[in-house]
């Protein structure tokens, strides 16, 4: 994709996501800052904040679990190196709220590589979001689980492990698909 394609996709994705009833009514959204070739999230994060939504962003812990901190604008993000400097993420630079902070979210926006026709999400393999989903289940929390992807990343079937959980919806630049 060209840089223009990426920008246009991010704008379309934000518009589609903001139209979701789950996000329209959310008070707290656990999200993430896109990296590399992931569909862009900065415009969506800023739009949620402008609506008065409390946005939580992850901070990767040494064991690949996620801590959470508030997003208060682009200036609240810091570049953090992980894995011996192999990977750099934008993470909240302020207060840490703990791994359980995600259990108070009305919506959890999940990154992924693909989602299939059943709503099963293929992650990057680090297990960070598998831990988040397990934490939500243990806490009895039931936020809407939404994956942000490009249209070509919605596929017929992805591999599934016993601990995997289906998501409720996938948002792409061209639309929204909901799952049972």
TrEMBL record:
It holds the Pfam family 5-FTHF_cyc-lig. InterPro entries: FTHF_cligase (IPR002698), FTHF_cligase-like_sf (IPR024185), NagB/RpiA_transferase-like (IPR037171). GO terms for molecular function: 5-formyltetrahydrofolate cyclo-ligase activity. Its cofactor is Mg(2+). It catalyses: (6S)-5-formyl-5,6,7,8-tetrahydrofolate + ATP = (6R)-5,10-methenyltetrahydrofolate + ADP + phosphate. Keywords: ATP-binding, Ligase, Magnesium, Metal-binding, Nucleotide-binding. Its EC number is 6.3.3.2. SUPFAM superfamilies: NagB/RpiA/CoA transferase-like (SSF100950). Belongs to the 5-formyltetrahydrofolate cyclo-ligase family. PANTHER family: 5-FORMYLTETRAHYDROFOLATE CYCLO-LIGASE, ATPASE INHIBITOR/5-FORMYLTETRAHYDROFOLATE CYCLO-LIGASE. This is 5-formyltetrahydrofolate cyclo-ligase. It comes from Streptomyces incanus.
